[in-house]
Amino acid sequence: MSSYKPKKEHRFSFGLWTTANRGRDPFGEETRSRLDPITNIKELGKRNVYGFNFHDDDLIPFGASLQLRNKIIKDTKRAMKDYNIVCAMATTNLFYHRVFKDGAFTSHDPRVRAFALQKVMKNMDLGAELGASVYVFWGGREGTEVDASKTPEESIKRYRECMNYLCAYADKNGYDFKFAIEPKPNEPRGDIFLATAGHVLAFINTLDDPERVGVNPEIEHSRMAGLNTYHDFAQCMEAGKLYHVDLGAQKPNRFDQDLRFGSEDLKETFFVVKLLEDNGWAGTRNFDEHPYRSEDEKGVWDFVEGSMRTYLILWEKVRQFNSDKKIQQILKDLHNTDPRLEGLMRRFTPEGAKQLQQHAFDPMALSKKRLPYEELDQRTQELLMGVI
Ligand code: GLT
Ligand code: MN
Ligand code: MN
Asked: Which of 102, 231, 300, 336 lies 20 to 30 Å from 75, alpha-carbon distance?
């Protein structure tokens, strides 16, 4: 571990769109040349990346002939075998083509919604063929700029109808991948429906098959909403709904920056890694981020290697945190126990409630317990800064 070299067993993965990102932004053209998907898969495999993710259009150009489609699928399978890399996750591009300019699942036009379903079903077939274990739904265009144009209630109903339809389709075909809905507050739409992990968690419970569906939280998207990513990921996990993760970095409350993992928010990122590793995360350690626009083609691979290296360093820091005597002693002292009161609180009984109502508390004495958070946080900081 101490060499911080990625291995296949670390289960790192990247979206093909991350490395193939050409640096285009709303104010400027591409700064890098096209990276074809087969070379992309090979280069990732060579660097001990375990898996790749793809949108239908990342692999097979929109509107490609059947002949071209079949050739690309054949080449993809060959590259996967030769470079020992799996297809970890599949998803659908329901945001790029102008047909989706006012949404896919939440478009007013039933023909657009039907086209979106057709596009998803087609790519689900391919995802299953390539062995993906997760299918992601990121509704980037599902939103509004003009609130008079759509009611959120109606849009959410349409969203639900499509998700129910696709769950049934996967079921009927015996596809065992999990579905993971990815929240984002805004960008490209002014406001996107299912804006945060909390929205998605609530939505899932209203679906016909809530078991199949979970959340794909993304560090950058939580931070765009000014939220604590660690808490977002943890609530999904506690609910048994963390089905996939998108790792990257982001300055809070700004445009979607998609920065390299760990480059902006080290302490929060450390706690995300700690959450995943302490709880035996079995999914992929997946990066969804972009190389800087100022990078050239070589820099793309520096970005890939840097992301994995940072993860492995933070993982090492997690081990150090978990075995640091001072930190562990502070944590132990914080967690005092009171078996009698804990027993009374575990479950309501009329008898227990009576006892609790009669219990004599001394709030002033309780408030005197020391909470040495200055020391705890300083120690954590020093550990992260590498001086202990
Ligand atoms: C897009 C978006 C990501 C999503 C991808 C899946 S595509 O780049 O910014 O957060 O995860 O559709
Ligand atoms: Mn994103
Ligand atoms: Mn993402």
From this structure: 300
Mean model confidence pLDDT for the chain: 98
Q: Is the CB of 20 under 6 A from ligand 1?
A: no
Closest-CA residue, ligand 1 atom 10, reads 288
**Which domain does 350 fall in, by range?**
325-384
> Read out DSSP for 185-233?
SSSSSSEESS-SHHHHHHHHTTSS-GGGEEE--BHHHHHHTT--HHHHH
- The verdict on the CB of residue 136 being under 6 Å from ligand 1 is yes
CB 262 within 8 A of CB 311: yes
Report how far ligand 3's centroid is from the alpha carbon of 26 (Å): 19
Q: Residue type at 259?
A: L
Taking the centre of ligand 1 as the mean of its atom positions, its distance from the CA of residue 290, in whole angstroms, is: 11
The reply to whether 300 and 361 lie within a common domain is: no
Cα–Cα dist 386/243, whole Å: 32
The answer, yes or no, to whether any atom of ligand 1 lies below 6 A from the CB of 138, is yes
Residues 297 and 358 in one domain: no
Residue pLDDT, tens place only, 175-190? 999 999 999 999 999 9
Examine the pLDDT at 351 and tell me if it is beyond 80.
yes
- Which residue numbers are catalytic? 55, 58
Within 107-176, where are the H helices? 110-130, 152-172
CA 299 to centroid of ligand 2, rounded, Å: 20
**CA-to-CA distance for 158 and 126, rounded, in angstroms?**
25
Residues 64, 324 contacting (CB under 8 angstroms): no
- 26-54 residue pLDDT tens: 999 999 999 999 999 999 999 999 999 99
Best residue among 17, 142, 184, 247 to mutate for probing ligand 1, ranked by most atoms within 8 Å of CB: 17
* Residue 261 forms part of a structural domain: yes
As residues whose CB is below 5 A from the ion ligand 3, the structure lists 218, 246, 288
Q: Are residues 160 and 274 in the same domain?
A: yes
* pLDDT tens digits, one per residue of 317-328: 999 999 999 999
Nearest by Cα to 138 from 251, 256, 261: 256
Return the pLDDT at 1.
53
CA of 220 to the centre of ligand 2 (A): 6
